[in-house]
Write the structure tokens for this entry.
Amino acid sequence: MCGINAPIPISDAHLDDLRRIILKTVNKDQVLILSNIPRVPTSITSVLRNISRRYNVPLSTLRRNAQILKSMNLITYGEASDFSGVELTELGRFITELTAGEEPSLLGTMVQTVSGLRPLGTVLKGLRQRVLRMVAEAGSGHLGASLSVIDILAVLYFVKMRHDPSNPEWAERDRLVLSKGHAAPALYAVLAEAGYFPQEELVSLRRLGGLLQGHPEIQIPGVDASTGSLGQGLSIAVGMALAAKMDEAPHKVYAIIGDGELDEGQIWEAALTAGHHGLDNLVAIVDRNQFQLTGRTEEVKAMEPVGEKWKSFGWEVVEADGNDPPSILDALDVCELTGGKPSAIIAHTTKGKGVSFMEGNKFSKSIPDASELARALAELA
Ligand SMILES: Cc1ncc(C[n+]2csc(CCOP(=O)(O)OP(=O)(O)O)c2C)c(N)n1
């Protein structure tokens, strides 16, 4: 028999019971807040804003639930006017550990598309199918490069970035420079799905007189920079980020660079400039798919240790699985918390990702014939 003050031994069955009881006490949104409180001090407002964007929960709902968690002594934070960060209390940490795993998966999260709210995982499959159809129909285009970068673009446009497809020129929008502009089919598919222009335009890829040429151009709604000549996009992004700093504007600038593109000297000139100016509103994402046109990047011109190179130029460096949306989002969230310097994400990806027989380099330049297209689409169904 247990004495009145003796601790009750907790078995796994007890923990399961406790977990069930707690999940009846705290609601889904409160679990979301508890499980998304970073270890580094961050204001309650930016934590709730991140959760709101990531899981599509209205900010007002999250604010109310944060107040409830505070009144339950599970989290602490100051008033909006003071800048003390949000933290889990000891009890809050215990409850968070017990409820771990209750967070909805990012692939199942509903994201806003032109055809309404849809799960991110479903959106991604549709995007890959569209890229395949566009390139097959056009008879040219960089398929492998587009399939490797599409998860990064989708997480940016459907989860992370502040932007408004009904107002492409919105001054406060976050900017995206696709420096590896030859992956334009992926960008176009994402922009159409977000609602920047009709999906029907996608079939005009590379057609004379059509809206969507082989590389992004700023006259296309949603495209922030004309790119295609490798090496130049990061310089454009640095200029945008520097201008935002001078204007005290809140938006962020993202630049996506190919790993072969790192051979271009201009990349390192831009990297040095961004480091010098401490551009913490700039994130460069390296699509580290290990291949360029003529072979493996490490054989053409060895770049490793690539992260160390960015660090030595004054950048914060984060590694991510660039074909795994939660990993991409975590890396982007870490970059948001970095102050005083620009961030580089080394995003490890696979060229041709998503279609088993295209993964690797073989299909990066070649165009699928009708039967290959059918097989690829079937895999993504
Ligand atoms: C200045 C310049 N030189 C050459 C090209 C032709 N080109 C198009 S894609 C490509 C390979 C790029 O490789 P990488 O940066 O690794 O991107 P990936 O295709 O692997 O995503 C090249 C050389 C170009 N677009 N710009």
